[in-house]
Write a structure and sequence with these properties.
alpha/beta; four-stranded parallel β-sheet; globular
Length: 197
Amino acid sequence: MIFNKLDIDTHEVLKAAGTKWNFLNFKPGLVGGHCIGVDPYYLTHKAESVGYHPEIILAGRRLNDSIGIYVANQVVKLLIKKNHKVSGSKVLVLGITFKENCPDIRNTKVIDIINELKEFGAIVDIYDPWADKDEVKHEYNLDLIQHSELDIQNYNAVVLAVAHKEFNKLETELNNKNSELVIYDIKNILKKNDGRL
């Protein structure tokens, strides 16, 4: 969020930091799943039960819990900059699982992006080749589109939410679209394009 305000490319910073011998290459993105998304609350509950308020852990959780809404708001701002009417804009979200190349949808933060975009009146389609459509319908009351229905020309914005290996194949198609298409690449799946991110 800070780098975004300073117009600094996070991945360029990570690349430079990677020249340090003991660098660990953690990349920003949505933090879902159980270990990071849920388990800290067990620790904070126990800590508070013995009179300790774990402020740093709770602050980290608040930040991670708000990132989906932050991403959706960034997409809305980009739609407005491209002169799209937000209400009624068609948005394609690529990926709903909580991490790449994994079918697990439990505790996914992608749902926060979808819900926030819908709050703005956007029409949101979701494509995820790893997720089970019946499970997504049961857990989130959302319908996944099938690969045969995937036509990027039908959308005003595309949000690459999960770095599934299948999405690497979309790079040429996404980068060859007109400049009116908003592309928000959370996990830096695409190589640098014309600055539409």
